[in-house]
Fold each of these.
Amino acid sequence: MKILRALIKKEFFQITRDPSSIIIAFILPLISILIYMYGINLDTVKVTMGIKNDDANPEVTTLVKSFGHSKYVNSIVYDNEDELAEAIIRSRLKGAVIIPNDFSTKISRGQTGEILIITDGSEVNTANYVQNYSMQIVNQWLMTGKYGGLAKKQIINPVMRVWYNQDLNSHYFILPGSIAITMTLIGILLTALVVAREWERGTMEAILSTSVRKIDIVLGKYIPYFVLGMLSMAFNVFMCVVVFKVPFRGSILMLFTVSGLFLFTSLGIGLLISSILKNQFLASQVSLGIAFLPALLLSGLMFPINSMPVFFQWLTRILPPRYFITFIESEFMAGTVWEIVIINSVFLTVLGLILFAAVYKKTDMRLVK
């Protein structure tokens, strides 16, 4: 423990003496939050929706089928309203349409028929598309079906219900998602340079000349940057909740627990890259190419995963940021959903342990192999 404390102390001294560490941990996250706050506007292409039809009229059945024929909608028919609501809570659906049992009767009499459109407001652009797509499909069905003569009379009244984000403020989900990108930046890009820098500056030779153990070296790299990353996490959460007034409906304890698992995994990726390459320039380029950019582009924050080609949809399944972004957006907007917490935590824990073992194995204790 004495040796480990000395290595951790040395690493903290190196962090405080190297301005780039402080810049990456605090200044870049601040710039990132400001960019996501004021400069990002997202779009989407295809959404998954649930349909519940309480009207037995065969003509209304064709309306349900119209949702399935749309190239912009993946529709799933539900018979139970509780199951439909549960699917929205667990992010399996981005919205839902409920057709009441007197819908066709009112339309036939020339009265206004109401349909209920529910959207998941935790993703604002997706919520807007759910509403727009639903009304386009309903209006198209009205014009082409037996009620076509009534299409111009506005006999359908959509009743909108937005869950989690009633104001449809896009920053309420962009800013929490940006925290995942920041944590990736700290966990992978910063630590990708750590071991490589030791070899380039010759300090690794001095460390290996002592009685230090391999586990001491590995933990001496993990612990200081884990502490730095969690401090940056606290700073980002403070900025989102206190400064920019983003609603937080989950558990602080759960947020930092899963964030710690994600940071543990990211540190493993960065240290593994650094241990293998032993060159700062190559390590930085590789970390940007295989870790940071995929986290930015393929995590679901910038572009909806279900709108990507099938190959990339499967590729995102092995990317830690995808799971962390799903968790943190849910934690902020919907509160703690245990199914999401458990699935993401198990994946991050297993991957983090595998990476820790790989870093331990790749840490050289000899100058010449």
Amino acid sequence: MKQKILIKYGELNTKKANIGLFLKTLKNNIAECLKDYQVNIVYDKGRMYVEYNKEDENEVLAKLKKVFGIQKLALCYELDSNNLLEIKQQILSLLLNKSFQTFKINTTRSDKTYPLTSLEISKQIGSYILKHKENVKVDVHDPNLIIYVEIRKTSTYIYFENIFGLGGYPVSSLGKGLLMLSGGLDSPVSGYLAMKRGVKIEAIYFDSPPHTSIEAKNKVITLSKIIGEYQNGLKIHVIPFTKIQETIYKEVPNEYLITIMRRMMYRISEKIAKKNKCKIIINGESIGQVASQTLESISVINECIKTPVIRPVACFDKLEIISLAKKINTYETSILPYMDCCTIFVPKHPVIYPTLSNCLLYEQRLDYEALIDEAIKNEEIIKNKKALELEEYL
């Protein structure tokens, strides 16, 4: 019997006429993820299978656990037959090295013309095991071992464990978005959640030297590498923001500094998004978390652009965000004590309920279009090797 990795789609099964596009994207993402290994990937509307070298098993599994679009994985054995006697014999041989007292058979059939129902197959296999293996019994409620049997047209797959994947949609299956990435907890988590919904992301970071340090910039680069593992690389647009920030600080009342600064960031993000064919902007705003994230602030800040802004953690509390940051390994980097430009000039009493009329009045004091054009002209693009290869691959 051949040993393969069986991939279950989960949410992708809800797709109808366009499921082929999603499955092709998933296959391409897996191929890119496993390009350093000798693998063969085949798929149909029900399952995807990865053939691999046994010595690479742990590494291949670890890679696949970071691929969106995979609901479950299983190390399975492929039998080139759906003859029930052969299935029974092969299962019994696989059980020789397994220690258990109770078991259950879980059978599914993609071929509904098969002469027996799934329940009848399970009963026959169970009876065969009881007859040929001593000191074991069936327990359908809490067994030590579950034996999964999937019968297809000309083959059968046998496995003993489901390994949970990330679920969601394959990255890039639903287009591209621009993530406003800071060094905090929220934005990397937002980027992760956007990727889970099939959005390939690029990132934008606002750099304000000498007010922000090189450590703050390197912190963001590290975060981009961590979340970039979920899409085989991440490109960052680093925008020099010092001149804009200093001009705002001189010309705008103290309580409106953050509001106007965020409006400038939104304007720049929209231009970068359009230039790079990103359909949405993504950020880590969480309702009510800080003064610039009250509903009034979000509304006034958002008013200056037309590109849709997606806020994946808008309704998460801080503990939920921290929990997910730990899960995706961004937490320890995010809490490093290097301030970004959003925290450098925070006033003691920022406005909680800004008005659009005030924002427009204060922005008249700034030649912000020229400042924005200059900042974009001097952007720095950081793109690790994997991100470059993925862009060329797609």
